[in-house]
Each structure stands twice: as C-alpha cells, then as structure tokens.
C-alpha cells in the first residue's frame, strides 16, 4: 500500500557497485558475500537502504547491464540463496534493498536473443527485439543513422543479413516494448524479486524503452537523438509496473534513471501512478557557483512538484567522481550535456579543493527535501582515478570509441578498506579487477574511521542528524548579502549555509547555533565565519527574525 509519505521519499540510499565494494571469495571481484561481510559499513553510516547495481547472470560486456537471465544471480557474485540471506540481513538492520532492473535491453546471451537469431527474419522470436532489413542495394547499410550511446552505429548485422537495434553496445540488444510478450515477461520478473522481498527497483534508462514510430533518421545537429528517447509511450509502461507493485501490500519504490532533454519533463515520469521518483542529474553538471546550484535546485523542486518525487545525487557509477568534477578551476559555464558523456570530460582537478567542495555540497544536498542517493566511495572523498593504465580499462565506451573516450572505469575502482594488505582490504588475496592506485591507501575506511576530521566522519555525523533536522518541512532561500553564499532555510528553523566563494562569510547571529560544519577549520561559536568552499548547518528557535524573501513549495 502506498502511503502519503512513503519511506523512499526522504531516504538516503547508498549505491553498491557490487564488483567494486568487497570481495568475499578472493577472486578480485566484489560479490554478495563481501557485501554481507561489510554491511556494517552501511549501518554505521546511517543510510536507510541500498541500491544494488545489476548482479544477474551476465557476460559482463557492460558489467551486468547486459543481462542473460533476469531471475538469477551471476555465479561470480554468489547464488540466489546468498541473495536471500543478504536481503534478510539487510532487513534485520532496518535497511531497504533496491535492485537495478534493466528493461531497455538484455544480453546477446539471453535465451530470447539466441532464439531470435536461430528463428530468422519475420519470426515471433525476432519480434521481441528490433530487427530490420538493412538499407542500400545489398542491405549492407544500417536501417537508419542512429548512433549508440557508447559510440558507433546503433545497429549490428546478423548472419542472415538483418540488423538489430542496440542503443548501447552490440552485446545489449534492445527489446521491442510493443510486443506483449516483453510486457508480460517484465511483469513477471518484477514479481519474481518482489516475492523474494525486495523493496523496489532502480529502473535503468527508463526513458528509452519506446522508439519513434518508423525509426526515422535523426537529421538534427545535436547528439541527443530525440527519436531514441523520451517517447510518449514509455509512461504507460511505467504505469503498468506501478500496477504490478500495487499487488503487494507494502510500500515499494521505483526510482527512474531518466535523462529528458529538459528537467521540466521529469514531471511526467515522476507521478504517483508511475515511477513515483526520478533521479535529478542537473546538479552533476553545475559549475561551483551559488547561482548555478540555486537555479538547478529550483528546477529540480519544480520538476518534482512534491519533494519526495526527486532523488538528488552528486555521483554514480557513470560519471566522474564529484571530488574531481568540483575540483576543476572555477568556470562560469555548466559542463556539457548532463548525460553519460560526463564520463568523457578531460579534467585537471585540484583534489584538495574538490574535496572541500564535495563536503559542502553533501551538506547542501542533505538539507533538501527529497531522497538522496550516495555512490560508494564518496563517503571516503575518493577522487576519480584518472590515470588508470589503459591495458586495464574495461568500459565498453573505451573499446567502442577506439580509446578516444576513457570511459567510466575511473569511478569504479575497488574500495580501499584498509591502508595496506592485498587489495587494501577489498579482497582476500586476489588481484582487484581494476588496479587500485597506491594513493588509494590514504582514503582507506580504517584510517578515516579514527579521524574525526575525515570525510567518512562527516558523513557518519551528518546522516543521522539529517533525519532529525530536516524532517518534511518547506524550503525557502535565505537572503545573503553576498552572491556567492547560499542559504537553504527550512520551516523548523534549520538552515544550511554554503559559501561557494573563497573568502570567509560571517554567519548572522539570528541563524542560531552551529550544528555541523563541512570544514574542519570551522566555523565555531567563537569564530562564526564560514570559510570559503564550506557549508554549515545552523539551528534557531526563533526563525521569525530571519529575512526570507522567497518561498518554494
Ligand atoms: C545506464 C547505466 C549504465 C549502463 C547503461 C546501459 O545508464 O547506469 O551504467 O551502461 O544504462 O544499461
């Protein structure tokens, strides 16, 4: 049953990129046993739940986003029985678990795709995918000019001459969502996992399932091909899933990965009868500027309508880590399109500065109404690994672009748990599937745990406080007399003040006591100056005295 304030509306969810979280069997690849052993890390952090990246059987062409069987666990990660045990333990800790569902495409190893290859043109089996004859006199040209997200044409030809569509890599054939069998199959997949007790799903490329009728060529000049995404028909599919979820007498989450051309279009994805909640990615693309962050937050709040429809985030497994992004020299412009290409930027970051800003941005994010998604390793302040040796790279983006784009491996390097030992505590002896640079040791969990000034300590203090301080109250912007300072004021007298500039800013006495600061240098009650690139939470009982000109719902 869905209540008016669902558990997922204000939750902090920790994204577990399983391959890189913790290795339980010593083969250098993270797995369910490793996650179970390290689950206390999430409990200690104070998150409300976790989102598990795909861990179904997969040839791993796109690290699990190419699924061969939607109803099992990849042997490299464990077994269904281990999954059930993990889920029970997650629930014993009072946490929720979201699975990642990938409905746009499967793997070439999926039984349906193999059958489609065998069955030949015009068959019912091919009808579950998007097969078309080629163009040109001998059909040797792709059916249209679409380019795949990972580079190269979005079509691959099979032995009998037909072509199949793949918005991503050739190993990820797109389903045909006009086919009733596809619709029925996914209803059943959702039920399979809901019956095991999961608390919901993160929906991969939820805006991609339906393509423009007739699959026309894209003749526009920009790289966002509107024929591939954001078609009106996708919402009906989400509504159908919502009805499947409604068969269960518990509050279930569907959070969509949706990249519309403009964030205002998120509204039609996030309604209560459909996904219910969508990621808001605009903050990933903002330069470090008070005006840019404020405008992006306002857009997000407007798109969500109701606060709990938006899931705020500063990072995930597809983009450069925020420490590295925010450590760029100050730029007045937003970085290019907020899509997966963020992983393709060449950056020369100031890591120390990026760390300060990322800490400040965390306090800002946590002060907003709505859900917050954290990506594993951000609680350690990990920078992007920009100098991963090329011979270790595994991302299909790297291969599909012939090395022109580095891809996303740099944010997927296995976590450092200890300052020494094999794989820095990630593995019991195996070689981590991506090598950890020597400097990773500095960021180890074991080292940060003991240090009250560490990023990990900030996260561990901030998360439980957020639950207490930022309950579901309205948000306003407080007035600061400097354009590079932002103040989010909540109706219960709590303020988050962020100094995007470099010069200290004196915190007005009316804002009350300092509850938490992102910067270990202060402010303190004795010296109430908020340092540059820092944020603080403040609390007062007499909010009336604070000047708050604008109000947002
Ligand atoms: C999403 C995932 C990304 C994956 C792609 C294709 O964008 O987050 O990791 O490569 O979908 O499934």
Quickly describe the structure.
This protein is of the alpha/beta class. It is built from 13 helices and 19 strands. The protein has helices spanning 32-37, 39-45, 80-92, 111-119, 124-127, 180-196, 234-245, 290-304, 322-326, 351-366, 396-400, 445-449, 455-469; strands at residues 12-16, 49-52, 96-101, 131-132, 155-157, 163-165, 200-203, 253-256, 276-280, 310-313, 371-375, 475-478, 485-490, 494-499, 505-506, 513-517, 529-530, 534-539, 550-552.
Can you describe what's shown?
With about 550 residues, the chain is α/β, with parallel strands linked by helices. The chain has 13 helices and 19 strands. The protein has helices at about 30-35, 40-45, 80-90, 110-120, 125, 180-195, 235-245, 290-305, 320-325, 350-365, 395-400, 445-450, 455-470, and strands at about 10-15, 50, 95-100, 130, 155, 165, 200-205, 255, 275-280, 310-315, 370-375, 475-480, 485-490, 495-500, 505, 515, 530, 535-540, 550. The strands form four sheets. The chain has an eight-stranded parallel barrel. Strand 9, helix 8 (about 290-305) and strand 10 (about 310-315) form a beta-alpha-beta unit. Helix 6 runs parallel beside helix 7 and helix 10 (about 350-365) runs parallel beside helix 13 (about 455-470). The protein starts with 11 loop residues before the first strand and ends with a strand. The site of alpha-D-glucopyranose (GLC) has 10 residues, from loops. Alpha-D-glucopyranose binds near residues 168, 257 and 317.
